[in-house]
Design brief:
The protein contains 13 helices and 12 strands. It is of the alpha/beta class. A 7-stranded mixed sheet has the order 2-1-3-4-5-11-10, with helices on both faces. Strands 7-6-8 form a 3-stranded parallel sheet, sandwiched between helices. It has a two-stranded antiparallel ribbon with strand order 9-12. Bound molecules: beta-D-glucopyranose (BGC). The site of beta-D-glucopyranose has 11 residues, from loops. GO terms for molecular function: carbohydrate binding.
């Protein structure tokens, strides 16, 4: 991990060095002397708090610090809107178009159009299968999924669960990340199902990561299998939906639930013991990596990328920056606060204050 972090740091340092060098010239490297312009399309604001509270914030800070022009818009889970925003950005002369796709099909259409207009393209967080983006910036999402699986195993062991029935509440099927997360936690859970240590319970995807629908799906799972003893949930929003259903049955805290994103709500659920763990993805690092790459591309450079990801539909390796995530249990919630991702004021409200004090968030 050290080595990889170093590699990423070197790439970023090298990229910023080039950017600075170009910035010293009167020409910005685009040959036009104009300030680079970067467009970013975020997917929605309901499936995870991260897009508006973290990604938008950190990207804005990074672009402002670099002195580039930028336009960050949110498609609000509307594919038509997604395409309209992309068209506008291309018409407005962005040098680079960055997308978090809603699905690979519409993502590809937008990337193709950008490319045909000479606009550079980057997939942010979600890979567009067959999309042909020049770069991909994300986390190692299979490893993120493994953390969910390992976390659940630890939580079940702590509870001394015997032959627990494990339910899986997966992310949106059109999001390639949902598949990667599942590949990750299944790599941990499947051997346990196969050996009989765990019992495989209901296993369902939540269309478009819709948190409300997740609640309905999980309630049905509980009807079908009232003895569910552990839940691998693919993010904190889905986890919260499961926890709400468990609360109705007074099972919260008795059935470990995992998650991902370290949202304020997710961390609060961890603090009170209703959620066993979450995975913290330092979005600032992701946003910074994206900003550096986008700025280099806008300047017509060809930055090196430390990683690659295979796109099975495009049948190619996509040059990538893949960052590391961290598992968060009650005992280390403070790491997320110390990293500045959530403030004590946001997290330790009302009854959570006492819980924060218990785990050293002062
Ligand atoms: C992201 C997650 C997010 C989910 C729902 C995934 O692609 O990696 O962080 O929770 O989408 O928005």
């Amino acid at each position: 991990m050290r080595k990889r972090t170093l590699a990423v740091a070197l790439l970023l340092a090298a990229t910023s060095a080039t950017v600075t060098a170009c910035g010293d010239d009167s020409d910005d490297g685009t040959g036009s002397g104009k300030t680079p312009k970067i467009g970013v399309i975020l997917p929605d604001s309901k499936t995870s708090a991260r897009w508006e509270t973290a990604d938008r914030k950190y990207l804005t800070e990074a672009f402002k610090a670099a002195g580039v022009e930028f336009d960050i818009q949110n498609a609000q889970d509307d594919k038509t809107q997604f395409q309209t925003i992309a068209d506008q950005m291309i018409t407005n002369g962005v040098d680079v178009l960055v997308i978090v796709n809603l699905d690979s099909g519409t993502g590809k259409a937008v990337l193709d159009k950008a490319k045909s207009q000479g606009v550079a393209t980057i997939d942010y967080d979600r890979l567009t299968l067959g999309g042909g983006a020049q770069y991909y910036v994300s986390f190692d999402n299979v490893k993120v999924g493994q953390r969910i699986g390992d976390g659940l195993v630890k939580c079940l062991a702590d509870m001394k669960a015997s032959k627990p029935v494990v339910a899986e509440l997966n992310g949106g099927p059109t999001d390639n990340n949902a598949k990667l997360f599942k590949d990750g936690y299944d790599s941990v859970l499947k051997p346990k199902y196969d050996s009989g240590e765990y019992v495989k319970g209901p296993d369902q995807s939540v269309p478009k990561w819709d948190n409300t629908e997740a609640g309905t799906i999980f309630e049905q799972m509980l009807v079908q299998k009232p003895d569910i003893a552990g839940v691998a949930a693919a993010n904190d929003g889905l986890a919260n939906a499961a926890i709400a259903a468990l609360r109705k049955q007074k099972l919260n805290g008795k059935v470990p639930v995992t998650g991902q994103d370290a949202t304020t709500q997710g961390l609060q659920n961890v603090l009170v013991g209703d959620q066993c763990m979450t995975v913290y993805k330092p979005i600032k690092q992701e946003a910074d990596a994206l900003a550096k790459l986008a700025i280099a591309l806008a300047k017509k450079e060809t930055p090196a990328a430390p990683d690659k990801v295979y796109d099975p539909e495009g049948k190619r390796d996509v040059p990538s920056v893949l960052l590391e995530a961290q598992s968060i249990f009650k005992a280390n919630v403070k790491d997320v606060v110390n990293d500045g991702y959530v403030t004590k004021q946001e997290l330790c409200t009302g009854d959570f204050a006492a819980k924060c004090a218990e785990v050293g968030i002062n």
